[in-house]
Design goal:
By secondary structure, this protein is α+β, with helices and mostly antiparallel strands. It has helices at 19-26, 43-54, 68-72, 95-106, and strands spanning 31-35, 60-64, 76-84, 87-94, 116-118.
Length: 121
């Protein structure tokens, strides 16, 4: 059984996503890809959704999103940047490392950035 329930088109379909919790309570999957599942949610519900995902400790969620609150709840962010025309690079940021850098910089210690480029090809 697929862990994803596609919604028609790109419009919000909250009812189409209702089986997720029931499926994961019965038989959790090691990972799940969620594409813009939080797009129709307001800020408060985006935060609730992010907290809800944390409850599934046996599953790694790959969430494709533009919501800042969902990104802030992530352990690691991955993105694509284009430093020059026609050249794409994948970058990753571990948010725990960013928090550690902020603590070090507030204490007067500098360690440099921890952004990492991932070789995609």
């Amino acid at each position: 059984m697929s862990a994803l329930v596609p919604s028609p088109g790109r419009r919000a379909c909250p009812a189409g996503h209702c089986p997720h919790p029931a499926i994961y309570l019965v038989k959790p999957s090691p990972f799940c890809v969620l594409d813009e599942i939080d797009a129709a949610l307001d800020d408060r519900n985006v935060e609730r959704f992010a907290r809800y995902l944390r409850r599934f400790t046996d599953t790694q969620f790959i969430v494709i999103t533009h919501q800042k609150a969902t990104m802030a709840a992530a352990d690691t962010l991955y993105g694509v940047t284009m430093p020059e025309s026609g050249v794409s690079r994948i970058v990753s940021v571990r948010l725990a490392d960013v928090a550690a850098d902020e603590e070090e910089s507030s204490a007067g210690v500098t360690s440099g950035g921890r952004r990492r480029e991932v070789n995609a090809g």
